[in-house]
Design goal:
This protein is of the alpha+beta class. The chain has one domain. 23% of the residues lie in helices and 25% in strands. The chain contains 9 helices and 17 strands. It has an 8-stranded mixed sheet. A 3-stranded antiparallel sheet has the order 2-10-9. The protein has a two-stranded antiparallel sheet with strand order 4-16. A hairpin with a 2-residue loop joins β9 and β10. The longest helix has 15 residues. The N and C termini lie far apart (47 Å).
Length: 332
């Protein structure tokens, strides 16, 4: 994703998705390693260890401050045409939007894998521990990029991309990079047309072997996070005698660690727009409060009332017309 600030505050590992232990080895000679990545005394939490955590995510989100430009363009583009990307690629960025039911499903899968002799009665008991650990910006209702959030299903985004850039064929997905920032690890997936296979051949295909960070399967992205908390306020306890996991906390002195997430980068050539119907843009638009730590400056965020006024101006309320007017209008 496009960032402001000092280039020294970021390190990119091209064509690789590095799990945390591998990333620590690669980055140990950098100053970023000494910020948060070096820590090895983090209290137990879901993700790393013998049993992996796995989210099956069916929605994507695009946070922005450029609402008026998106409305006027009828969709999304790279305003810098790749000039700020490490590989000089013109990309439209989305992030995984994990829904509440997807957290619940991930918790059930985690318990079933951790406790193979789980009973049906235990399966019916809602534990609800995983949401306590979903405290990183990857799960936040707040935004770091602007006051506006568009949320579409993965299928909607990929179908629009397929129709507009792939002549109706399925797009190709590849491992773009791992990006390390001060406290953030981003795993980027490149999406492009098969017509550009040669252009992107240096990036490996996004496959689905066990325990990869990210994969795509049947309209969903599979994400196996290793750092879902950022601020570690709780301890995960495994009660093998009762086939359950419990949350212990609050910790008196919370631990701060890196957090990871997956971003989807669609290759859209400079100046071109990934278009969506105007009504669909409005339907999938929400206001976001500003996060405590942001990528964009404070001036790129708006108060709710100002945002509401802008949305009303861009999508004015339509007046209902009679059946006769609609029929005549469609034939004239």
């Amino acid at each position: 994703m496009q960032r402001q600030g000092n280039i020294k505050e970021q390190k990119h590992y091209k064509a690789r998705h590095l799990k945390l232990n591998d990333l620590k080895q690669e980055a140990q000679d950098t100053h970023l390693y000494k910020k948060y990545l070096y820590k090895d005394d983090i209290p137990p939490y879901p993700g790393p260890g013998e049993v992996s955590l796995e989210f099956h995510v069916s929605r994507l989100k695009h946070d922005t401050y450029k609402l008026e430009e998106i409305k006027n363009d009828g969709g999304f583009k790279d305003p810098k045409s790749g000039s700020e990307d490490p590989d000089r690629l013109s990309l439209v960025w989305w992030s995984l939007a994990v829904a509440p039911e997807e957290i619940q499903s991930a918790e059930r899968r985690l318990l079933e894998e951790a406790f193979p002799n789980w009973t049906e009665e235990q399966a019916r008991q809602k534990q609800g521990f995983l949401v306590d650990f979903a405290s990183s910006p990857a799960f936040s209702e707040k935004s770091r990029y602007g006051s506006y959030r568009f949320t579409f299903t993965v299928q909607e985004v990929l179908e629009a991309y397929s129709e507009q850039y792939c002549s109706g064929r399925p797009p190709v997905m590849r491992v773009l990079r791992t990006s390390l920032y001060r406290q953030e690890v981003m795993y980027a997936v490149l999406v492009h047309s098969s017509a550009n296979d040669e252009l992107f051949s240096e990036y490996p295909m996004l496959n689905d072997p066990p325990n990869t960070i990210c994969a795509y399967r049947d309209g969903r992205f599979t994400w196996r996070p290793e750092a879902m908390c950022e601020t570690h306020k709780y301890v995960l306890l495994q009660r093998r005698d009762k086939n359950l996991m419990e949350v212990w906390g609050l910790i008196q002195d919370p631990q701060f660690y890196v957090w990871d997430h997956v971003a989807i980068a669609l290759h859209v050539a400079g100046g071109q727009v990934l278009k969506f119907d105007s009504d669909d843009l409005r339907k999938n638009l929400r206001f976001c409060e500003r996060d405590a730590v942001t990528v964009r400056p404070e001036s790129d965020f708006q108060h709710y009332q100002d945002a509401q006024n802008l949305v009303t101006r861009l999508w004015p309320l339509k007046k209902e017309v009679s059946l006769q007017q609609r029929i005549r209008g469609s034939t004239e």
